[in-house]
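Exam revision sheet. Question 4 asks you to relate a sequence to its structure. Input first:
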Amino acid sequence: MTLIVGLGNPTDKYKNNRHNIGFMVIDQLIDDLSPSNITKNSFKGLLYKKNNIFLLKPYTFMNLSGESVLAVSRYYKISRIIVIHDELDIPLGRIKIKHGGSSGGHNGLKSIDNIIGQEYDRIRIGISRPKEKENVISHVLGDFAKTQLPCVNTIIKTASQLALDLSKSNIKQIQQQYPAKKNYCSE
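Answer key, structure tokens:
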């Protein structure tokens, strides 16, 4: 069983924020797969299932995402976890894949790391870093610019397919199939 987690913040206020790119990818997977909805309050999120794949949008807000991941992974005895999240240090248009490692200051990852450890795969979607350090929070919690939406839509579709491919394969093969230096928006 594989759990694919998209990180984001619930409510319409955050819906189109850069920080919610993980939720956007899960929404794309829901559209593509038409999974069954699983309702259980203890999961602290929206959970869907299609065959051996679970899709999770934690509704604990970013800083407590690990609680939802733990609840689902324990209940279903999940063997593999893939987390999709925004990444400031990667330019918009690029996606990187890695296993484990540091949270890099990402509060959603910190929460997951503190609760279940670092042994999970990560799909890191670039949102670019603002030029001024003091603008990081407003950048992350800001919406994508209208001019960026075609790129964002391409990235969401690519990341959703990547997540499915990763759920069926090992990370080394997927890293070759989806090279980190490729810009999906410049084709």
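Marking note for examiners. The mean pLDDT is 95.
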